[in-house]
Automatic annotation (TrEMBL):
This is Beta-glucosidase. The active site is at 353 (nucleophile). It catalyses: Hydrolysis of terminal, non-reducing beta-D-glucosyl residues with release of beta-D-glucose. The gene is bglA. It is an enzyme of class 3 (hydrolase). It comes from Gemmobacter nanjingensis. PROSITE patterns: GLYCOSYL_HYDROL_F1_1 (PS00572), GLYCOSYL_HYDROL_F1_2 (PS00653). Transmembrane segments: none annotated. The lineage of its organism: Bacteria, Pseudomonadati, Pseudomonadota, Alphaproteobacteria, Rhodobacterales. It comes from the Bacteria. Coiled coil: none annotated. The keyword Hydrolase applies.
Length: 438
């Protein structure tokens, strides 16, 4: 039998357990005056998303949130990670929709009455289409508009939030979406990518300044990390993996903690950054109160012909999830200890996402083993001195998995997308048992 999930008592006192969600992936956008976002546009464009599915209905969390929060409370969770849909709060990118703010107000109160600490992410990718029309993250003005949005949300619900993250996964916002073309807006354009790589950090910095000015505390950001393994010891492959590591794992954290971009990434991106970018580094480099770490997998990289970054991925040998991602818990330990050593020292860190997609509807013992292995990896990092204070499973519910549509199931709880019925899986029960207070 697989290793069981380590019980709560084996973690430091006060360690928080929770599950993560994101607005566009669970809420549904048909109700409450939500406006169109660039994800609606992306999904409506043939070839971008499996079966061209979108987030219009998703899990209907907009109406069913009480049931979803009950599921978390019944699993003895301590916290709930959610995001605010920018297009719900500001449907045309400018005007505030009071119904949108009312929804998040109810949702946060719903967490508090159930004893769940609200972990807010301001931006988990639902850019209003009206701002996409103006260039989205290629346009520097979007940064100031994001700071406005951050202020509007914080004025309404900030008094009840345990921790606020500005942005979820800037690598996905910038690189995956503007260079690799896999997420909205679906661009494959290095100049657009250079701008987005910088502007998303400037947006973070400007929002941090704005929220600090309002007296808001517990401010951070959620970054994703993906171990870059060289395909061989050949110098060209080592250099390819180092370039990948710089773009993915170092660009954002080094900008925030050192006020500088890594040389291996600047080599290719410098010509495509907005003019005068150096002058923004002071705004970007601001103390965080905490860091969120999302971790799923590793990738193997080899040198490839062609223009910078001149790398290609090589298929790895490890068992894979339904996403095709190798299962590699050691990578989580690697990043938690590396971040403490090289970047954030003793800053509180939360694993804000970790999980696996799996086709099995209810008997998902593979998922239980995955969670157990990644919690053990977290414990090893803590033993090595990393100040990890919580762990959020991605995700509570099967949901809209972006370009994969509804096909890839990450949930502890099964969702029937015809009836929207929720059914806890075996992994949900295993986690609930490990988290029970005794
Ligand atoms: C992360 C995203 C999250 C979810 C998981 C599987 O990159 O933050 O929304 O899609 O991957």
């Amino acid at each position: 039998m697989a290793d069981p999930i380590p019980p709560r008592a084996t973690f430091p006192p006060g360690f928080l357990f929770g599950a993560a969600t994101a607005a566009y992936q669970v809420e549904g956008t048909r109700f409450g005056g939500c406006g169109p976002s660039h994800w609606d546009t992306f999904a409506a464009t043939p070839g971008n998303v499996v079966r061209a599915e979108d987030g219009a209905t998703a899990c209907d969390h907009y109406h069913r949130w009480p049931e979803d929060l009950d599921l978390a409370a019944r699993a003895h969770m301590d916290a709930w990670r959610f995001s605010t849909n920018w297009s719900r709060v500001m449907p045309d990118g400018m005007t505030v929709n009071p119904e949108g703010l009312d929804f998040y107000d109810r949702l946060v109160d719903g967490m508090l009455v159930r004893g769940l600490k609200p972990f807010l992410t301001l931006y988990h990718w639902d850019l209003p289409a009206a701002l996409a029309d103006l260039g989205g993250w290629r346009n520097r003005d979007t940064c100031a508009r994001f700071a406005d949005f951050a202020e509007i949300v914080t004025r309404r619900i900030g008094d009840r939030i345990a921790a606020t993250a500005t942005i979820n996964e800037p690598w996905c916002v910038a690189w995956l979406s503007h260079f690799l073309g896999a997420h909205a807006p679906g661009l494959r354009d290095i100049r657009a990518a250079g701008r987005a790589m910088h502007h998303i950090l400037l947006a973070h910095g400007m929002a941090m300044e704005r929220l600090r000015g309002l007296g808001q505390r517990d401010l951070g950001i959620v970054l994703n990390f993906d171990r870059a393994v060289p395909a061989s010891d050949a110098p060209a492959d080592l250099a390819a993996a180092a370039r990948q590591d710089a773009i993915f794992n170092r660009w954002f954290i080094e900008a925030i903690t050192k006020g500088a971009y890594p040389t291996e990434a600047l080599e290719g991106l410098a010509p495509h950054l907005p003019q005068g970018w150096q002058n923004d580094m002071a705004v970007i480099r601001q103390p965080l109160d905490w860091l969120g770490v999302n971790y799923y997998t590793r990738h193997i990289h080899a040198a490839a012909p062609g223009p910078w970054p001149a790398t290609r991925e090589v298929e790895g040998p490890l068992p894979k999830t339904q996403m095709g991602w190798e299962i590699h818990p050691e990578g989580l330990e690697h990043f938690l200890t590396r971040l403490a050593r090289d970047h954030v020292g003793n800053l509180p860190v939360y694993v804000t996402e970790n999980g696996m997609a799996l086709a099995e509807p209810l008997d998902d013992s593979t998922r239980t083993a995955f969670v157990a292995a990644h919690l053990h990896a977290t414990q090893r990092a803590i033993a090595a001195g990393a100040n990890v204070q919580g762990f959020f499973y991605w995700s509570m519910l099967d949901n809209y998995e972006w370009a994969e549509g509804y096909e890839k199931r990450f949930g502890l709880v099964h969702v029937d997308f015809e009836t929207l019925a929720r059914t806890p899986k075996a992994s949900y029960h295993a986690l609930a048992q490990a988290l029970a207070h005794n």
